[in-house]
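Hey, sorry to bother you again with one of my protein questions. A protein chain has come my way and I'm curious about its shape. I'm sending you its amino acid sequence along with the backbone structure tokens. I owe you a coffee for this, so here goes:
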Amino acid sequence: GVFYMRESSRENARLYDYLVADYIANRSCKKALLLIVMFRLLNFCQENQILLILSIPLWILYKVYAEIIMHVELSPRTRVGKGLLLPHPFSIVVNSSAIIGDHCIIRTCTTIGNKGITKKSGCPICGNQVEIGSNCAVIGEISIGDNVVIGVGSVVTKSLESNHIYAGNPARLI
């Protein structure tokens, strides 16, 4: 017979896979783990109106914890791959239109967003296994390839090729 998995079962399995990968990535930093678990649950609720309404108390708790206590702006509407690592989750801003790949690392005081104030300005798309150092700005309608390391204090305004290390202001290949 043909194995058929209902759509909700697939979504539940996907949520479980993401939570396991996030736990493995953040198990040594409980602050980050709490933030990521709430993010994933709210992200999961985005597709279902009933779950979205039922998740309002969690949404409020997440907003207080993430934005007021940790100073992290990571909207549950943002597309983020599994295994996101936030080693020191403080003062991080990720635009809700940005896309973050699997197994990425975002360090403290980092901004991933658009160049302008208007919504028409594009946002970065980060590939898989991208490591972004502290105090970085990754801005504009650019793409960051897979297996990229962005050094501390870098300003990235142009697309970066896969499998390289970049640093500086503006970020250059090292």
